Amino acid sequence: MGTSNRTNTSNRTNTTKRSVDELLAEAREELDRLEPLDAAAAQVEGALLVDIRYAALRERDGTIPGALIVERNELEWRLDPQCDHRLPEATHHDLRVVVVCNEGYASSFAAVSLRRLGLARATDLIGGFQAWRAAGLPVS
Predict the structure, then answer these.
(1) Where is this region: Disordered (predicted)?
(2) 34-134 to CATH, choices 3.30.9.10, 1.10.10.10, 3.40.50.2300, 3.40.250.10
(3) How far apart are CA 101 and CA 108, in angstroms?
């Protein structure tokens, strides 16, 4: 019998069965989520608004002026200040980041992931881009 190179990850992986709603509620407990007007004020004060929506939604609905476009699958690499693939704006771990998705669900998970990278001020926009637009805030 040969030996396996696989490592037993049972000690590192939580296999408790939970619903996505439970995971989302847990994620949001870590965040100081922002309403659209508060997110707009944060942007004026220097926070990075990061739009993680996919291209079809941006083409259909528009974008938030000044927001960085970083699709979800690249987010951690682009915003990690220690990564060679980071964006020029990802200068330090104290950066205030407000993640924006379409309706405010995926952004919560994304913001928690950024917090795990050490971006302790990362959060998301309640209601996402749709709430931003409904609040009458600028869209291009």
Answers:
(1) 1-20
(2) 3.40.250.10
(3) 9
